Amino acid sequence: MPLVGAHVDQTDPIAEAQARGADAVQIFLGDPQGWKGPEVRYAGGAQALREAAAGAGIAIYVHAPYVLNVATTNNRIRIPSRKLLQKQVDAAAEVGAAGIIVHGGHVLAADDPAVGFDNWRKCIDGLDAKVPVLIENTAGGKSSMARGVERLERLWASVLAADGGAEVGFCLDTCHAYAGGEQLAGLVERVRAVTGRIDLVHANDSRDVFDSGADRHANLGEGTLPADELAALLREAGAPVIVETPGGPEEHRADIAWVRDQLG
Fold first, then answer.
1. What phi and psi values does residue 135 have, to the nearest 5 degrees?
2. Is the Cβ–Cβ distance between 29 and 62 less than 8 Å?
3. Strand partners, 136
4. By the 8 A CB rule, do 183 and 139 touch?
5. Residues 112-129: pLDDT tens digits?
6. Rg of the Cα trace of the chain?
7. d(CA 58, CA 214)
8. Low-confidence ranges of the chain (pLDDT < 70)
9. pTM tops 0.85
10. Which residues of 20-46 are buried (b: 16+ CB within 10 A; e: fewer)?
11. Cβ neighbours of 11 (radius 10 Å)
């Protein structure tokens, strides 16, 4: 049975995991909307969190800040993004994270997407990846690097050309995929054909309809995703699962139970 967990508050992720009956958690390290360096808010700091997670048998995943965009042609965003990503990777290693999830980013509307793909290559070339970096597919934007399998194929070709690119992993978000115009049926096979791997699944239902481009998560079974296709995807992926759904412990317990039922 793959690990199953939820995105939780970063102050005490071990208690949050236990309140949900989770095997894993995903957290931010600091402000997800800010440019400040990473911050470990757990009492006792990074080492205490690492030891507590190990003692409780809880796997930790870190989600990089949303502001990061290593693909952009805007130097005032791209260069700080690379620097902040390295700091986040270092902090994730200190807490013993199983991986750090990073959105694929985008270029400006007038830009050639090829420049954004190559900026990812340059980023990976210069990154000291002390923990696995997992690139996540995104839902919207015609200039996005990771909306849909076609874009993902070009992104992955650039990543694999980088020094260390073979170690880069992939996080499949089900809401992002569906809202981004990818049917769930057969998606695991299509993704693996271009990435060779799926390291983590973000199991989220979608509030909005297919190909809407809207990144709006819903609790499992309460959105527009075909439930049978989502269940089949989870089984086919065979990867750890994190739910990033609305609500607190009660809602997440229900979503985690649904995932485990499908995997069982």
1. -80, 135
2. yes
3. 103, 171
4. no
5. 999 999 999 999 999 999
6. 17
7. 31
8. none
9. yes
10. bebbbbbbbbbeeeeeeebebebeeeb
11. 12
Q: Which residues, in sequence order, are bridge partners of residue 133?
A: 100
Buried b / exposed e over 176-189, threshold 16 CB at 10 Å, is bbbbbbbebeebbe
Residue 69: predicted pLDDT: 98
Q: How many other CB atoms sit within 10 Å of the CB of residue 86? A: 16
Per-residue pLDDT, 161 = 98
pLDDT computed for residue 141 by the predictor: 87
Spatial contact of 101 and 136, defined as CB atoms under 8 Å apart = yes
Distance, CA of 7 to CA of 9 (rounded, Å): 7
In the chain, the domains with their CATH numbers are 4-263 (3.20.20.150)
Output the DSSP codes for 43-82. Answer: TTHHHHHHHHHHHHT-EEEEEPPTT--TT-S-HHHHHHHH
